[in-house]
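User: I'm preparing a small set of examples for a lab meeting where we compare how different chains pack in three dimensions. I only have the primary sequence for this one, and I'd like the structure in token form so I can line it up with the others. Please keep the answer compact; I'll paste it straight into my notes.
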Amino acid sequence: MAQHPKLTGIEQLSSGWVNKYILTYEMPDGRMHSYECASRKKLEAFRAGLEERGRISRAVLAESAASPTGCETASTPSADAAGDLNQATPDAVCIVARTPRDTLVMIREFRYPLNSWCIAFPAGLIDPGEDVVRCACREMEEETGYTVSADAQVRVLPQAGFSSTGFTDETVQVVFVEAEKASEAHTEPNELIEVFELPIAAIPEFLNTNPLPIGTRAQLVLESFIQ
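Assistant: Understood. Below is the structure token output for the 227-residue chain.
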């Protein structure tokens, strides 16, 4: 049976827009292991998230060991607890917007860590107390000038996904919307964004020939539209 390392310490190395931490674990064989990571969350919120996910993870392992099939089921108490945890406000949204012309609203954005323009869906951070759908609509309008009408279909994936589990606890909620161009974008001075529409029929060729960096999430969402 897989064993769960024990979190024994959290040291904050730096603070700011992104916070850097060193986690100390006692491994199942008794060794001590340190691991560097980053989070948008301040120390107490970061610690609370680690402890809650650890509690759920240990419960799932125990249930898997007790199950005849070796896996947990959707009706188990730990799955219910995980559902509660997933209701926590994500850090950010990613908006997959489809137009009446069967195109997807995409952006080229200059990303400073890569020193390159990159392909992505519109996205942004959720403000404190802000609803996920409201954030998606706000970010769409700010970054692209496209709006989501009051009667448009909106679908939110049931669980926010983690951006990079080996580096950060950041979560991103994917929201599917119907949108249409209404005005010009109004971005921040240091947000360099170009908006374009990608015909759904042209997605295979685009993925095969695109020379710019693209996130895994954008790749997989685009693949999902290929018939």
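A couple of notes for your slides: The CA atoms of residues 20 and 165 lie 15 Å apart. Helices lie at 43-66, 77-86, 132-144, 203-209, 216-224.

User: Perfect, thanks.
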